């Protein structure tokens, strides 16, 4: 059933959209157990008709925003593993209120 749902989602969302689903499914591995409860995946933005230079948008608790900014490079590297190439080049951090 899960495989069927993924196949249907892949046809609807396309490859990039499915990778976003993979990123959400593996979010704890990407941000780490230490930050899993404090950092929420929001979305991935790509320039029009491109599959690179993407921006990972996250919402964070105010107390960890500076730490997540420091960890940006590592988080992007781990997220890019699900794309198979360096699709994400930066991260936008929004503080949750």
Provide an overview of this structure:
This protein has 97 residues and is an alpha+beta fold. It has helices spanning 2-25, 27-31, 65-70, 72-80, and strands at residues 39-45, 54-60, 88-95. It has a three-stranded mixed β-sheet. The radius of gyration is 14 Å and the shape is globular.
Feature tags:
97 residues, alpha+beta, 3-stranded mixed β-sheet, 3 strands, 45% helix
Question: What order do the helices and strands come in, and which of them pair?
Answer:
Blueprint (H helix, E strand, L loop, with lengths): L1 H24 L1 H5 L7 E7 L8 E7 L4 H6 L1 H9 L7 E8 L2
Describe the structure concisely for a colleague.
The protein has 97 residues and is an alpha+beta fold. It is 45% helix and 23% strand.
Strand content: 15-25%
Q: Residue ranges: pLDDT <50 for 5 or more in a row? A: none
List how many beta strands DSSP finds: 3
Q: Give the N-to-C terminal Cα separation.
A: 38 Å
Order of helices and strands: HHEEHHE
Shape: globular
**Separate helix tally:** 4
Mean pLDDT, as a whole number? Answer: 86
Query: Which structural class matches the secondary elements?
Result: alpha+beta
């Amino acid at each position: 059933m899960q495989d069927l749902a993924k196949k249907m989602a892949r046809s609807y969302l396309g490859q990039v959209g499915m990778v976003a689903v993979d990123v959400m499914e593996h979010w704890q591995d990407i941000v780490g157990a230490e930050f899993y409860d404090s950092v929420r995946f929001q979305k991935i933005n790509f320039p029009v008709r491109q599959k690179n230079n993407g921006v990972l948008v996250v919402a964070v608790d105010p107390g960890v925003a500076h730490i997540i900014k420091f960890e940006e490079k590592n988080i992007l590297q781990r997220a890019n593993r699900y794309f198979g190439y360096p699709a994400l080049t930066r991260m936008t951090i929004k503080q949750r209120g």
